[in-house]
Amino acid sequence: MLKINNLHVKLEEEEKVILRGVDLEVEAGKVHAIMGPNGSGKSTLSYVLSGRDGYEVTDGSATLDGEELLEMEPEERAAAGLFLAFQYPVEIPGVGNMTFLRTALNAQRKARGEEEVSAADFLKLVREKAASLKIDADMMKRPVNVGFSGGEKKRNEILQMALLEPKMCVLDETDSGLDVDAMKLVADGVNALRNEGRSFLVITHYQRLLDHIKPDVVHIMANGRIVLTGGPELALEVEKNGYTDILAGVE
Ligand code: ADP
Ligand code: MG
Ligand code: MG
């Protein structure tokens, strides 16, 4: 599924190296978590996967089912089946959520050479997906994320993920200050969308989220690299002993 090989990334504008050789392989149907201290490069990894400006890949690769992601435009990445949810969803005043989601879905379809979905069919699809996730579809009538509570933004993100039916989902929940309810929403959404053909990379600073999303594999990132990989017990160890103890001796 997702294969990251020796990924090196620096800031475009400055001589600051952030990722120093990230190696990571997420198999189909698996949930991998990345944890790590603040500033270790976790968000940068997700930004680079999304194709955000401002970062320069100086070495390495990231492929999705063998296709090089790093050479694709952001919409091509979505068409290839990559989905990224970020810590701070953008607010778009004046654009209805329904229009926004349909535009996202149709951009994906267009990049795949598929037919666009009509407003009527989309409405049906949204109602279906929202109901299966127990999300109130009323939120669809409001402008994108404007005045949404943290929980509503999370619901919206999960709904978007359900609509786009990605095969690789990357969620960066590091610093979002999720309260317990919002955290459960994210976890329930991920768990509902988990299947043997879909993989998840869940980035989180705290172990709590992983109480609700049981990861198959846990990685610890430090100083721009994955320095430790283990099972769910690694997350519990972080919770108990903190990063300093765990990282002593591995770098
Ligand atoms: P994490 O998500 O693990 O907390 P980040 O990827 O956000 O780490 O950041 C890694 C390092 O890169 C930090 O030292 C951060 O300050 C720096 N960094 C990331 N993006 C930028 C940027 N656009 N400008 C300046 N520094 C950046
Ligand atoms: Mg940070
Ligand atoms: Mg971060």
Topology (elements, then pairings):
Elements: E1 2-11, E2 17-26, E3 31-35, H1 42-50, E4 55-64, E5 67-68, H2 74-80, E6 82-85, E7 92-96, H3 97-111, H4 119-132, E8 143-144, H5 150-164, E9 168-172, H6 180-193, E10 199-203, H7 209-212, E11 217-222, E12 225-230, H8 233-247
Parallel strand pairs: 3-10, 3-11, 6-9, 9-10
Antiparallel strand pairs: 1-2, 1-4, 4-5, 7-8, 11-12
Question: Quick recap of the structure?
Answer:
The chain is of the alpha/beta class and 251 residues long. Helix content is 37%, strand content 28%. The longest helix is centred in the middle third of the chain and has 15 residues, at 97-111.
Strand order of the largest sheet: 6-9-10-3-11-12
Q: What class do helices, strands and sheet pairing give?
A: alpha/beta
Helical amount:
25-40%
Distance between the termini: 28 Å
Count of distinct strands: 12
* CA-atom Rg in angstroms: 18 Å
Name the helix and strand elements from N-terminus to C-terminus, one letter apiece.
EEEHEEHEEHHEHEHEHEEH
Mind describing the biggest β-sheet? 6 strands, mixed
The coarse silhouette is globular
Strand content: 25-35%
Which ligands does the model contain, each kind named once? adenosine-5'-diphosphate, magnesium ion
Mean pLDDT: 90
With helices defined by DSSP (H or I, 4 residues minimum), what is the helix count?
Answer: 8
- The residue ranges in which pLDDT falls below 50 over 5 or more consecutive positions are none
Pfam family, one: ABC_tran
Domain ABC transporter: 2-248
Protein name: Fe-S cluster assembly ATPase SufC
Keywords: ATP-binding, Nucleotide-binding
